[in-house]
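Hey,
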Amino acid sequence: MEKLNIGILSKRKTMLTGKLKDCLEDKGFNVSIYTLKNLVINEMLLEEDFFILKSKSLFFLYAGFFLEANNKIVIPNPQISFMQKNRIHSHFLMKKIGLLTPDIYLGTVDTFKNNLDVNDFPLILKPIMGSGSKGVRLIKSFKDLKSEDRVIIYLEKFIKGIHYNIYFIDNEICTLIKPPLSHEHVNMKKIETPDDIRDLINKWRKFFNGDLLFGHLDIVREDTSNRLFVVDPGSFPEFSNWKCSRSYVENICDLIIDKYRKLKKNFNKN
């Protein structure tokens, strides 16, 4: 087996990142973790064979773009990760694919006060760059909007219904019911995956033509219509609530190594 040197771009060395490192080292690979404490975007990074982009924070995305520009393989693809990190980009991507997403509002607090109607509430305030629940809060009225000069903010229509956290690793889908606006690590109840959710996940993955090895979608089933709305994508969750069959860590490692070898083979042909 080829002795690969693998770099992981991550905010931390623990949690899933640490588990991936242990798994890959057990398989005979050399693994280095690059965090904010030791990551410098320069030619030294090119000594690794390829990189795993665990974090979608901008600095790590910049590192991913630098590596790709220097013909290094990065998994997941930095552009795909960016599309899921930037909520404006992901919103219009969902619409392009044909998935339902809540209506969004972009502008300053002052422009919202002049253009939003009281019937538009409740809304959800979300960071433009982000995923998950960090920085997310419910906006029930104009009083909840605080002026910050001319800062552009992102508001999303709140959909009342059943909230799902949907993990997928390759063709396996793990569906969980979660409290509204909660983070990934809260207690969730696993259910059998409904057919319409399975179809939605397959449609999402098909768009990326095999480059979406794993990830998650936050989905809401609207009470009044039973329609599914995608409210948040994620390219590399922690999978802390994975409650399906096979070990998610080993599965992710195997998928990444297999993807690297396929990309490397195609790269060598060209």
